[in-house]
């Protein structure tokens, strides 16, 4: 895939430095002993998974490896059968997705649903409904960031697939997350949209952690400095992005010579 970066960025990229304006970054999200099964099928079995402020962490693995399940457990849309989660030192295991979103754990979805009868602008307004502080940017500025300013008054239901994904991202950003969980954000995007997505992630302030589940390895290479590889719900490999991408065991997993499913070659 050829990634096209927007020719004229509308804002300078955010430096990976700076300070959380409300000093609320704490020590991030720490999960331990996560286990989840559907019937006899264990789809998640992780001893620990940690997200620290500012992380750029990709979770990759063959189809069915448990990546979306992990994101769901972290976001609170799936309750793991066992395990504990703390966020900035507080136990949040039993708190649901809405509480976690308000606390700063935002997410996008593999299949965004949004509100089809609302305009893009109203969707972004809803995304920011729980602000505890002055918004980082107006809803219109958020739409501009993701390249949807010209579609502000269009109904979400009439957007193209790629634009719907970018709107889902805008809605998540409007919630001013401290941890942003992205589930296959590049799936189905054009090259130009993919370039825009990478640009948006690069502009995230340094105190925001971004965790993305992604099959597009050029997107992973562009944004992640740490990669966890899941296989059958377990950690197969984890480490600095360059090291993991060069690991022949990971390539073997993707090529199916290690009992894995099919997916793009890392
Ligand atoms: N609600 C459910 N009921 C039963 N099985 C499920 C359910 N959700 C997911 N699974 C199964 O759990 C396993 C892990 O699914 P998950 O979506 O987490 O994997 P994934 O790594 O995100 O896959 P992909 O890359 O294909 O999106 C798969 O075998 C999937 O079929």
UniProtKB/TrEMBL annotation:
Residues forming coiled coils: none
Pfam families to which the protein is assigned, alphabetical: ABC_tran (PF00005)
Region (Disordered): 1-30
Domain ABC transporter: 29-257
Keyword annotations of the record: ATP-binding, Nucleotide-binding, Transport
Xref: SUPFAM superfamilies: P-loop containing nucleoside triphosphate hydrolases
GO molecular function: ATP binding
Classification via PANTHER family: ABC TRANSPORTER ATP-BINDING PROTEIN, CONSERVED COMPONENT OF ABC TRANSPORTER FOR NATURAL AMINO ACIDS-RELATED
Record's protein name: ABC transporter ATP-binding protein
